[in-house]
Design a protein that fits this description.
Layout (H helix, E strand, L loop, with lengths): L1 H18 L16 E8 L2 E7 L6 E9 L5 E7 L4 E4 L8 E9 L8 E5 L5 H8 L1 E5 L2 E7 L6 E8 L5 E9 L3 E6 L7 E9 L8 E5 L5 E2 L6 E2 L29 E3 L3 E18 L13 E9 L12 E7 L13 H11 E4 L7 E11 L6 E3 L1 E8 L3
Antiparallel strand pairs: 1-2, 2-5, 3-4, 3-6, 6-7, 8-9, 9-12, 10-11, 10-13, 13-14, 15-24, 16-18, 17-23, 18-21, 18-22, 18-24, 19-20, 19-22
């Protein structure tokens, strides 16, 4: 009886080993079956190929091989958990031959299946059609639409001394609604050109035009003055020399601290504003924290006959502070400190904003939900009246 039980136990072990393979599939030289029921959807810059996955148990992935326009070989892989593979990197509409192969765990390859795709023009070409360019302060203002948020590079060119186009600006973007400013140009008519590139090296046609940059200069800070209209009193700290005049003393080590979320001042000149820069406090527990404005509004007036009533002011814009590192509240990187304190965070003012002389700064939200405002320095650019 004991021998019978042992014999039966041994048979059970042998049977279990046969039915439950553990570990890597054994190496063989039997190729998997090729793909069937292939369908092709041509899309911008490529194609989506769907297929029926072969029933081979050891099939591992499907690969697609094809060539880019410059002859660069491409190989895309898709696991057997998916029944589709996407072809990418094609620039302009053309016939693209794709070779589809099934690969198993022993690296055996199926019989290749050749299919023809006809990708649409790459996304960069439709983005180019959406581009608008207009005269702006110190250069030009560029806008575009990128519905798929495709990573792109925009190169802005202008004729050099020998009349050949040279790159003067480069912008990287994945934004749905893209915007860019080219600055530092003289207020004389000039040709500007633009091309868009993608990560695969595809390049659009060049568009160009003649534009007239608007004169821009930094407004003279020596003309800035403390000023408060009825209903908006001066609320600066009085204990530690945090006067508003520190905002325009060209020293980022001294600053202005205000007990209220809004303050006003006089530019001392009527000007059409183009951009401005603010320097935050540098302490790691204060920068992008506590009393630093995160979202704020600017209002303006050419006359001092205003009050706390917003109906007496003209709206300039709403602006938001963005931390470069994206770290959580209370954490900052060296890049954050360099940008917000040393270089200063910069914002553009829309071209259609009104001329102003008197400024009203209204904090709508601070980084640390504080009820006071602290800033180290402000610089403003634009085109002064009668310049």
């Amino acid at each position: 009886m004991k021998k019978f039980i042992l014999l039966l136990f041994g048979i059970t072990l042998i049977t279990s080993c046969v039915e439950n393979t553990i570990g890597q599939y054994p190496i063989d030289n039997v190729p998997p079956r090729k793909l069937t029921s292939v369908n092709i959807e041509n899309i911008e810059g490529g194609a989506i190929i769907t297929y029926e996955i072969p029933a081979d148990e050891d099939a591992l992935y499907v690969k697609a091989n094809y060539l880019l326009e410059d002859g660069t070989p491409m190989e895309i892989k898709s696991s057997m958990y998916s029944n589709k593979i996407e072809i990418v990197g094609i620039g302009k509409t053309r016939e693209v031959e794709v070779i589809l192969t099934v690969v198993d765990r022993s690296q055996n390859e199926s019989e290749p299946l050749k299919v023809l795709t006809y990708p649409l023009d790459a996304t960069i070409h439709s983005i180019l059609k959406s581009v608008t360019i207009q005269n702006d302060f110190g250069g030009i203002f560029i806008k575009w639409t990128n519905p798929s948020k495709t990573p792109i590079v925009i190169d802005v060119l202008s004729p050099g001394p020998d009349k050949e186009f040279i790159e003067i600006e480069r912008f990287y973007s994945e934004s749905l609604e893209g915007k860019a400013n080219v600055r530092g140009q003289e207020p004389i008519e000039k040709i500007f050109a633009l091309v868009i590139k993608d990560r695969w090296g595809n390049v659009t046609d060049t568009i160009s035009g003649t534009y007239l940059p608007i004169f821009e200069s930094e407004l003279e800070k020596t003309k800035f003055r403390r000023w408060n209209p009825p209903g908006i009193p001066y609320n600066a700290y009085t204990t530690s020399n945090w006067y508003i005049e520190n905002l325009w003393n060209n020293n980022i080590k001294s600053g202005f601290a205000n007990y209220a979320l809004e303050f006003t001042f006089d530019l001392g000149q009527i000007a059409k504003l183009s951009r401005f820069k603010i320097h935050q406090r540098p302490e790691s527990n204060l920068i992008y924290n506590y009393v630093s404005p995160k979202r704020f509004e600017l209002w303006g007036s050419t006359t001092p006959n205003v009050s706390s009533d917003f109906n007496t002011w003209q709206y300039i814009g709403t602006f938001e502070s963005i931390k470069p590192s994206g770290l959580p509240l209370g954490q900052v990187s060296n890049e954050d400190i360099e940008y917000a304190h040393v270089k200063g965070e910069e914002w553009n003012v829309l071209l259609e904003a009104p001329q102003v002389r008197y400024i009203r700064f209204v904090t709508k939200e601070s980084w640390g939900q504080g009820t006071v405002v602290q800033l180290m320095e402000i610089s403003i650019w634009g085109s002064p009246e009668n310049n």
